[in-house]
Hints:
It comes from Massilia antarctica. The chain is an alpha+beta fold.
Amino acid sequence: MTKPYGISPYRYRNTEGQWTQLGWRVTIRRRGYIVDRRLNAEQFGGMDAAMRAAIAFRDEVNIECVPLSKREVCATVRTTNTSGVPGVIRTRDRGQDYWKARLLTCDGANRTRQFSIKKYGDEAAFDLAVQARSQMLEMVQGFYVLHPDIKNETRVAPMAECPVMRRPCKLEPEAHPYARVPECDVSGVGITNVKTTTADGKTYTTKYWTSTVRDQAGLPKRRYFSVAKYGEEEAKRLAIEHHLRAAPITTAAGDGS
């Protein structure tokens, strides 16, 4: 049986070190960001229902955040690129200089075309190589992520809309429609739910506002303020106050936040 795309067991380890599956986790990387959501079986009435909910959510993500096509992958500028256009390089062969277009196709064939700088001139030879690379991209079909669960083939952009050059996602990520909304405007302050299992097997959750800073060694240090003890607003205020007071430690440690 093929493993569901983007779905894995959501597990919890108790105080005795034993793992218990609580539900399913959806994790998908898309264009510079990560979608991560946990679906607890108790909330959906069992593992099977939680799996159906996980599949529905994953399919929604795949529709809204289309995977990279192979064309886009081939058009992505690498850190080693020097020409400014992926797959276009300046090369020398038998004492002659050329601009060369190359592309490794889906069937493993390495296609190349080169244009003599002596014959066409540097600028014209470069332009011809870029045009040849664009024509090569027309032969590239499908998605970089290939899995039976990916149903977005009909959403591949026409060749006219596919750029010859594409910047990496990590440099200019698109808006993240599934991004988690931060609980607080102060970076390093957020909500933590601590789950505790008692000796008789009962589980309960305690909510805290937490302040996270880094010491001079770069290790995270957290301070917890219980909502049950202080109340929602006061616990948040104390966490913010602690974080701002400890901010110089973060700066001294070289943390850019």
